[in-house]
Design goal:
Protein name: Xanthine dehydrogenase small subunit
Domain FAD-binding PCMH-type: 192-365
Helix content: 25-40%
Pfam families: CO_deh_flav_C, FAD_binding_5, Fer2, Fer2_2
Keywords: FAD, Flavoprotein, Iron, Metal-binding, Oxidoreductase
Strand order of the largest sheet: 2-1-5-3-4
Number of helices: 17
GO molecular function: 2 iron, 2 sulfur cluster binding; FAD binding; iron ion binding; xanthine dehydrogenase activity
Structural class: alpha+beta
Shape: globular
Strand content: 15-25%
């Protein structure tokens, strides 16, 4: 059984289809059709809902963290122990919520189909910021598309509702909601079981290892932003899933003198602060990784584990020399991330083995790390080419070089010939040009609807040239740039 709060109503579910999304649960099972399906792929934001989780600050203060999510990509099992808020829950005692009033008064809605999603994104923004600036408002709304109204009045609604916000019913009930979330906090393995399909929800790494050993055919579910597409887009059935999002040990970020250890189930939003503090280019790329809704759900381990050749984080992590810890039963092994990827969607992971954590070296002033993403649009788009460069110079000579790309091969990988051309040579134009030519030995990229093979190779070479130029003249830096 799983338990969660539907606003303030306790829901206990056991026999639901584990493949059921929160979107369809709201619309078909509890009669809340305000949440809309626009794309069923996490691109349009019409299905946005807000999920509240109990959090404890470093000073011991308990509060509820509210985050916007795409309900079309969220399976119901992930709600275990949490609070789900949909657009119907905002109106209180016959009065619209302040974010709804702002949308009305600023004329932020026309056909209305996308409006519930915008309202929920604004609600999350209001809850998480006392006075959001223009950039924060854009970030909060970047995952919501509107085809008819235009974004100016919606941004005005964001300013009106968030810059002079008043306490609402959720603030008034916070203490009671915290107590209710504590009361339903999971204490044992949860489960949804419809007879022919099941989803198991472990709470510890040991439980996860045991379950995965017992069900090696199970699909591991973290954020679900990739896995859920198999259900919503390809109409496949997932007979057995194991949801890892309630394993607290895999959601920690631990800082050591020489490294960060990031739990594989840590959301990309939660990774941001730690990675941005060490590597600002990594932080910049995470801002462009996808919409805020997706970053709130998607995990660093998931972005590695799905072994996509166009995943944005692996090239950066490979260039940084990151490692992963793989767990199987009580056995653990540490593997260089570059050795994890073998072929298209083929990895070194063994049966019943899972990624427990990612180990990222801390930044060094001696190493010059930069990352770049080429995509058709600036925000919320998949890379055509993603490049990461990390070199160390001694007296102007390249002493170490790690160069990695995504989108250039069947796997994210290092550019060995390029690195060889750089190593031991003065870091100058002639060396960079030799290294650019060597990229043609490293990669024979494919052509697809994102870019031709010629465009990809030339872009990769130009990004190396860009890296060189920026290091010579750092004042003209324009990192993580998109090319149209």
């Amino acid at each position: 059984m799983i338990q969660f709060l539907l606003n303030q109503e306790l829901r206990s579910e056991h026999a639901l289809d584990p493949n059921l999304t929160v979107l369809n649960y709201l619309r078909d099972h509890v009669g809340k059709p305000g949440t809309k399906e626009g794309c069923a792929s996490g691109d349009c934001g019409a299905c946005t809902v807000v999920v509240g989780e109990l959090q404890t600050d470093d000073d011991g203060r308990e509060h509820i963290r509210y985050r916007s999510l795409n309900s079309c990509l969220t399976f119901v099992s992930s709600l275990h122990g949490k609070q789900l808020i949909s657009v119907e829950d905002l109106k209180h005692k016959g009065e619209l919520h302040s974010v709804q009033k702002a949308m009305v008064e600023c004329h932020g809605s026309q056909c209305g189909f996308c409006t519930p999603g915008f309202v929920m994104s604004l609600f999350a923004l209001q809850k998480n910021s006392d006075a959001p600036d223009h950039a924060k408002a854009h970030e909060a709304l970047a995952g919501n598309l509107c085809r008819c109204t235009g974004y100016r009045p919606i941004l005005e609604a964001a300013e009106q509702s968030c810059c002079a916000k008043q306490p609402d019913q959720f603030d008034a009930r916070e203490s009671d909601t915290i107590a209710r979330l504590k009361a339903i906090a999971p204490t044992d393995i949860g489960e949804l079981n419809s007879g022919d399909k099941r989803c198991l929800v472990p709470l510890t790494v040991a439980d996860l290892a045991d379950l995965y050993d017992a069900y090696p055919q199970a699909r591991l579910l973290a954020g679900g932003t990739d896995l859920a597409l198999e259900v919503t887009q390809f109409h496949r059935t997932l007979p057995v899933m194991i949801y890892v999002g309630n394993v607290a040990e895999m959601k920690r970020i631990e800082r050591f003198d020489d490294r960060l250890e990031i739990g594989a189930a840590t959301s990309l939003s939660d990774c941001y602060e730690a990675l941005n503090a060490e590597y600002p280019d990594f932080g910049e790329l995470l801002h462009r990784f996808a919409s805020l809704q997706i970053r709130n759900q998607g995990t660093l381990g998931g972005n590695i584990g799905n072994a996509s050749p166009i995943g944005d984080s692996p090239p950066l992590l490979i260039a940084l020399g990151a490692q992963i810890v793989l767990c199987k039963g009580e056995t653990r092994r540490t593997l260089a991330l570059e050795d994890y990827f073998i072929d298209y969607r083929v990895t070194a992971r063994q049966e019943s083995e899972f990624i427990e954590k990612i180990i990222v070296p801390r930044a060094s002033v001696e190493k010059l790390f930069r990352a770049y993403k080429v995509s058709k649009r600036l925000d919320d788009d998949i890379s055509a080419v993603c490049a990461a460069f990390n070199i160390r110079l001694e007296n102007g000579v390249v002493a170490e070089a790690r160069v990695a790309f995504g989108g250039m091969a069947a796997i994210p990988k290092r550019a060995a010939a390029c690195e060889a051309a750089l190593l031991g040579s003065p870091f100058n134009n002639a060396t960079v040009e030799r290294a650019c030519a060597a990229l043609a030995e490293d990669f024979t990229p494919l052509s697809d609807f994102r870019a031709s093979k010629e465009y990809r190779l030339l872009s990769a070479q130009n990004l190396l040239r860009k890296y060189f130029i920026e290091l010579q003249t750092p004042h003209i830096e324009t990192r993580v740039t998109a090319y149209v």
